[in-house]
Here is the input.
Amino acid sequence: MSTSSGGDFTQQSAIHVAVTGKQRGVSGSLLSTLLKETSGCQDNIVIHDLDLYTVMNPMDAATQASLILARLVQTLQPRILFHAQHDTPMFHSINTLVQSLRLSFIQLPLSEVQHALWISKLPLETLQYWNQIKVTLVVITDRRPHSLSRLLNSIHHAKYLGDKVDVSIHMEQSADRVTRMFVNSFRWEYGDKRIRHRIQKGGLMPAIIESWYPADNDDYGVLLEDDIEVSPLFYAWIKYNILHYRYNTDNSEAYNWVYGISLYSPRNLELMPEGRIKFDPNDVLLPEHYPPRTPYASQVPCSWGAVYFPEHWREFHQYLTSRLLDLKTDHPRLHIHVPNSRSERWKKSWKKYFIEMVYLRAYVMVYPNFQDFESFSTNHLEFGTHIKHERAQGAIDSFVVPLMQRDTLLSQLPNQRLPSIDKLPLMDLWGQLMTHQQMDAIAAEWHQHVSACIRRPSQDRFDPQDLLCPFPRNSTIINTTMTTTKKKQQQSKTVHTKHMLEYIEYVTVYMDENRDRILEDSFNMDAWDDMPESLDVATMTTKTSDHEHEDDEFKDLEENWRDLKEIAMEYQQRVS
Here is the structure.
């Protein structure tokens, strides 16, 4: 229990600790001795020994503990109550007490307390939002059951700090039978499991964008494609960052322009006009005297394991809807683009349009920066929808990064904490350091080139309409690169199809009255060999499924396979 507020609550709050007593595990005197041996921990801690008897049955002990705690709570009037959670009558009794008193309550499994030590770095005002945050794991899959099983296994073994976390699995139309069976049988005990299956091919863009939509401004989506694998500590990184950058009043200015948290540490820059190049954030940060392993924020959206914030994702939905509708017209009126960005080549990638929005809004995403690119997610870049050429296999190592298995999250951070927003280094789309004021000035200047509307002030953001104002037609240059002849050729091009009907033999099967056996003498078993096989969507390949819905960001990635292979080799030489 903690009774005051301001800054790190362990330093500026009166902390009261209740223990069950010597006969039931831990006595007040033993805890006091342990705290005295820990430098600086005993001065502001008051210990209450409930001294429960061992002879009491669990229900009676829980009732007595609740009565004593109720008196303590009424006397101390704490701001927040922590409980080392066990699924026992004691836990359920305390939970009922807290609900009746409407206390802010943090329940941590005893085995996971060690992964939430960053709680002490947050003020009480921030921690009171602990149970208000809702995180949904959004899994997007097609027909890669091996990859999917690796991802689901990794999220199943993660530490969720006692929180209820839902998982939503989205399958493409072409998901194979093994994938469907595996998804149906997957057990998820941390929250609700929801399954969606498309009945018409959508492709990667709608698969990602339509997989999650926030219910409110405390709803967060973790987007995970099936070739991703996560660290057991990925949720701890998520929760700490969300609380620190979204609910800490010291970082209130970040509320408008931090749009998400990456789980992944990239080893290359993907938006350089000439193609992907090697990238190490420390090459940029250390010369500017930032401490080693300082997290940073970048405008680049991460698609290989990231949390997206509700206001920005909702704004993107509206922005993308308008952009795609405009592009379907004969003469698009919106001519939004990002200068000198390779993403302009990606006509079918959702990231192209997200990059447009973040560039015009000066939004950024927080990235981890631990030793040797240790991350909370990695991408195995499976062959299939994304990577089709065997020659690209050697480049995969440039995307695989080590996952944090041993909890060194706090020990690696400078000063054992996340930096405040004013000390968080910011990088543009091309990995160049700049202040947010500079980033916003560039965005405001470029806004005048792509939209006829006046740019909204930052406090009135999350509505993209000011970005979607076309200039009058007489001042807009319409792209006419396609000649009239080529248009006529495309319009007159016809597709010749041939329908083939396979011979079908009908066989009458006679069954006895009890319907327990087939009269074999009336049925030719060899006839089954000649029967037509049923169609399986997962094995069907069509022009539409192969080409129309491909994400051309990944086709562009394949073109850089040689550079990526060199990046991977340089990294391997450095770590070895």
Summary: The chain has two domains: 9-126, 133-473. The chain is about 35% helix and 15% strand. The first strand starts at residue 15 and ends at 19.
